[in-house]
Amino acid sequence: MQHIExxxxxxxxxxxxxxVAGVQEASFGMAESEFLCIVGPSGCGKSTLLNIIAxxxxxxxxxxxxxxxxxxxxxxxxxxxxxxxxxxxxWRTALENVAFxxxxxxxxxxxxxxxxxHQLRLVKLEKFARxxxxxxxxxxxxxxxxxxxxxxxxxxxxxxxxxxxxxAMTRDEMQRLLADVWRETRKTVIYVTHNVxxxxxxxxxxxxxxxxxxxxxxxxxIPLSRPRDPLSxxxxxxxxxxxxxxxxxxxxx
Amino acid sequence: MNxxxxxxxxxRRAALTLLVAGALYEALARSGYFAAALxxxxxxxxxxxxxxxxxxxxxxxxxxTLYRVMFGLGLAIAVGLPLGILMGRVPAAEQxxxxxxxxxxxxxxxxxxxxxxxxxxxxxxxxxxxxxxxATFPMLLNAWSGVRSVNPLWMRAAGAMGANxxxxxxxxxxxxxxxxxxxxxxxxxxRSWIAVVGAEMIAAxxxxxxxxxxxxxxxxxTDIMLASLAVIGCIGFAFERIVFGSLERATVLRWxxxxxxxx
Lengths: 253, 263
Hints:
The complex is a heterodimer of chains A (253) and B (263).
Chain A: E1 4-15, E2 18-30, E3 35-39, H1 46-54, E4 61-66, E5 69-70, E6 78-81, H2 94-98, H3 100-105, H4 109-122, H5 138-151, E7 156-160, H6 168-185, E8 188-193, H7 196-202, E9 205-209, E10 216-221, H8 233-252
Parallel strand pairs in A: 3-8, 3-9, 6-7, 7-8
Antiparallel strand pairs in A: 1-2, 1-4, 4-5, 9-10
Chain B: H1 3-30, H2 42-54, H3 57-89, H4 91-104, H5 113-120, H6 124-148, H7 152-160, H8 165-176, H9 178-203, H10 209-217, H11 222-250
């Protein structure tokens, strides 16, 4: 049995123009501690699929199982990081933001602050524990959001283009940091992106989605050793292969 | 520049503005175009004010007025804040109360004074209820807007972290709506302060800053009128700057949810 199973998940929207399929029969499985990227052209429904996995949207049909159990609605077994920096609570310091999930769980203050501080250390922000989000840069805010999603120890970390709004240099730095965090925590991660190089850098396997309506076209393994060198021949080879998969369907669409 | 240096600079700027306005008035008063009884000089007004402060009458007038404002404002917050939040969260409550709010809100609170006098007589009850009427709507509308403007992403993030019901309300919705709620307090106070003076002119007897102005008109005591107006302005200014200014600095400014005022 796979750790996470996405089993023929579909979502159909009712619009004034009739029914529109957002996601169609998407299926894939994941092993524990696997890093999986979902890549596809914009509008293919990859974020929608992530929102279904997160439990913010209910699928029209199909099922999501974590550890063999079907999930409905959101729950503390999934942590989520959004693209928008505004996801942090501006009225809470970085530490208080990270401690939020534990606070909801009823963990005593001293203990949750200790855990939160440990998480902030993991994303190299322990010096900014007492800062409010508006005093942090975009990259620092996203790191805080990652620490916050990890703090209550969910079974899987869901990330919806978390670095897409950052400048290229910060993005590279964040990808390295995330790779380090993943190596240390061995979390199961589902990471949505439209950035091919990012997917090859981070993923064990890449799920390629077809354009609208989104379904799984193929799953591409990236069997490169870590840390990965984005300038190596093998890296570029995988990047090319992934781009071919995407370009192929762009012509058809 | 640190915050306290910035604040003292902003006080100095405010003082300068008031000083220039005062000097212009003084020039007008001394120009001789107007009768001194109608346009007393700043010095004359200052002397009257000093005398009234020394003998305690001005403080007593101010105390009456402040009592009415605080009572009415307190009631307005107690009703407007929860009701506005309820309307922002529960569509049925919004549908039920919105027509009522839309009809009552545009009626100037002072238009109710004669009615309230018939119902409650002259004195504190009427003035407090007028303040309550004036302050409830800005409080309610701001709370309502604030709740509706809470970033849905915060709700999602909090929901994903297991917040629900009570914790979502106290730890996300209320702080998320705080810029509007603080503005609501501010506007409600301002409307109270405006309404109380008007209400006291018609519906108070013997005490209150509004009453003393109206009473002084009978004896052509322009200096008393202007002295009382100065006190009204000063108290309003002090509340605006000190009470609501510190509230803002301790919350929404500190959190970066609104930008600092210039001046």
